Amino acid sequence: MIVPQYWAEARSQHRKGKQRVTVRRFGWSDESQEAAQAHADARVREAMEQVLAGKETRRLDHKIPYNGAEGLPIREEIVDRHGDVVITRNSYGALCLNTPDVLFADIDFEDPGPSARLYGWSILSMVMVAIAIGIWRGSILIPVILIIPAVLIGQGIAIRVQRSLWARGGGPELRAQQRLDAFLQSNPDWRISKYSTPGGLRLLALHRTFTPNEPAVQACFDALGADSIYALMCKQQSCFRARLTPKPWRIGIHFHMRPRPGVWPVKPEHLEGRRRWIREYEHASLAYAACRYVGEAGEGAIDEKADEVRKLHDRLCKAREGLAIA
Predict the structure, then answer these.
(1) Where do runs of H (alpha helix) occur along the chain?
(2) Is 136 exposed, middle or buried (0-12, 13-18, 19+ CB in 10 A)?
(3) What are the φ and ψ backbone dihedral angles of 88, each rounded to 5 degrees?
């Protein structure tokens, strides 16, 4: 896991005939700004050599705070450190826990969207009703006028029917719990700390530590239905991650942290505006938790390091304080 303190950028240009080739690379370091610049310079030289040698090479590093696609380190403000756990502020202002070896998995409850067949039958039925009304009234215009309302009504009916069917089966929460139960039955040495979130469940593995790219991690994500983008980011960043504080729009803050996008570092002239936003956000966050502790599942022993991360996570999330979650 790499969450650098210092960032720098280097550019290199080369004219090849009438074409100008430009390469941009970032550099990073935990030592100093100078070391970050030296790293950027070395990366841009290497990239330009590859371009000139005719190798397929990405020309630019994109300034993205946290993304698995390019495998760059996490580019967020470091707020605190607890051993090898790093607390950062993400692009929309929330604090996040980053750990190299304690497994977190957020499971979003499935959206019971209607199937294509249910959508089709519902919309077709409403369109036929519109046509029947037109025939009854002897008007060609009525079906034309009613066609859009018929489609919208058909969509609404399909959604209600699908949700009703899901509710009869226990709903998405029960389905997620059933996946977890089946996984633990197949993996009796596991032990999980479970939390409720506004949109699903958060699971923390307590029985041992993991490297993010080991097969057991992907097998766990697949079995539990973890978000595929999160799974990719864990591999690329060599890191597990959990949000510690509420999402701003869930606690009444509807204007973004400035400057936008919230990629670290920001220019000195923007720091005071950012700090003002953070103060307001932190004040609004006092009455909320990011998740709520539900309990433990599984029969495995508890690993000492995983348990220490759990204690830190629960304290910073306010997971055991009985607050509203956001």
Answers:
(1) 33-52, 116-137, 141-168, 171-186, 215-224, 228-237, 271-285, 304-317
(2) exposed
(3) -125, 165
Q: Which helix (H) or strand (E) holds 321?
A: none
Query: Hey, what are 268's tokens?
Result: 């000195």
SS3 category, 175: helix
244: nearest Cα among 285, 295, 192, 191: 285
Say which DSSP state 270 is in.
G
Alpha-carbon gap, residue 74 to 51, rounded angstroms: 26
Q: 28 vs 72, 89, 172, CA distance in Å?
A: 10, 18, 42
- CA 23 from chain center: how many Å? 29
194: nearest Cα among 204, 209, 206: 204
CA-only gyration radius of the chain, Å? 25
Q: How do the domains of the chain map onto residue ranges? A: 6-61, 80-109+171-325, 116-168
Burial of 254 (0-12, 13-18, 19+ CB in 10 A): exposed
36, 4 in Cβ contact below 8 A?
Answer: yes
Please tell me whether the peptide bond between 212 and the residue prior to it is cis, using omega within 30 degrees of 0.
no
Check if the beta carbon of residue 27 is closer than 8 Å to that of residue 8: yes
Distance CA 84, CA 265 (A): 21
Per-residue tokens: 76: 């967020």
pLDDT in tens, 136-173: 877 777 777 777 776 778 677 766 666 666 556 556 67
pLDDT tens per residue, range 196-252:
999 889 999 999 999 999 999 999 999 998 888 888 888 888 899 999 999 999 999
Q: Give every CB contact of residue 191 below 8 A, 6+ residues apart in sequence.
A: 205, 206, 207, 296, 297, 298, 299, 300, 301, 302
